[in-house]
Amino acid sequence: MHKPVNNDVPNADAHNEVDKATGYTTTGHEWDGIKELNRPLPRWWLWIFYATQVWALAYIVLYPSLPLPGGAPTGLLNWNSRAEVAREIDTATAARADTLQKIASLPLQEIVADDTLRNAAFRGGASAFKVNCVQCHGADAAGSTGYANLNDDDWLWGGTLDEIYTSIRHGIRFDGDDDTHISEMPAFGGILNSTEIDAVAQYVLAMHRGDADAVSPQGAELYANNCAACHGGSGEGERSMGAPRLNDAVWLYGGTAQMVKAQIRNPKHGVMPAWGGRLSDTVVKELAVYVHGLGGGEMGD
């Protein structure tokens, strides 16, 4: 049923036509022969529109909303998002209090032996890792040049739960923790000449390829006299000293000939903070469980 034309409507003047099909006047706008009808909005739409305006006014009165030179008014409810977040954190902390207390008090081996505690610690460690560790080790813990990959089974200081915990808690070469891991490789640029450094580098590269016997005897002799005491006779490394394996394909500072020679000539020594002075022991445990569970963790004795 079409709405009849009301000739008393102000816009129904001579300028407007009447659409014969609908009985409505037109607005005078036309595009490609299509004329716009002057139809009022549906009442249900108008009521919803008015309701949104009432809602907006109520929101302005009840909640902080309008930015003013002196700051936004707090609203009659005195609500703010920071207080809401604080309440949610308190609620979550209270819900996890029993689990966190167990993680804090139990040894790492007992934590991972309990499925509930292990899963809770792993999730907590994942969160702590994203906040504290991704800057160096990457979001996927794969590391980069100079930063260790935590997904593999190549560990400088050991990959058991306790060893990982110790590394996280006390750091690596961190000035400020008496129990930090310390190792220092001499700068052989002041001990060996360029020809000798090149021979050692070629021998090291040959070890990881498995054809060290094909390299000149000079490289093997220089390695035995200068490097084997820390890295082992066959390049197997020594974890108690933080000396890396040299007979695999994992390189902390790069595995090209130039990079190996640079490390022999003037070695880089990475530093990791002692997180025990920054994070609670519970969080350090959670990080140890998380890193251990990434795929390269080793079983203890």
Automatic annotation (TrEMBL):
The keyword Transmembrane applies. Residues 1-25 are annotated as: Disordered. GO terms for cellular component: plasma membrane. The chain crosses the membrane at residues 44-62. C-type cytochrome. Part of the cbb3-type cytochrome c oxidase complex. FixP subunit is required for transferring electrons from donor cytochrome c via its heme groups to FixO subunit. From there, electrons are shuttled to the catalytic binuclear center of FixN subunit where oxygen reduction takes place. The complex also functions as a proton pump. One of its GO terms (molecular function) is oxidoreductase activity. It comes from the Bacteria. It is found in: Cell inner membrane. Keywords: Cell inner membrane, Cell membrane, Electron transport, Heme, Hydrogen ion transport, Ion transport, Iron, Membrane, Metal-binding, Oxidoreductase, Repeat, Respiratory chain, Transmembrane, Transmembrane helix, Transport. One of its GO terms (biological process) is oxidative phosphorylation. The keyword Repeat applies. Its cofactor is heme c. Pathway: Energy metabolism; oxidative phosphorylation. Belongs to the CcoP / FixP family. Residues 120-208, 214-295 form the Cytochrome c domain. This is Cbb3-type cytochrome c oxidase subunit. Heme c 1 binds at C133, C136, H137, M272.
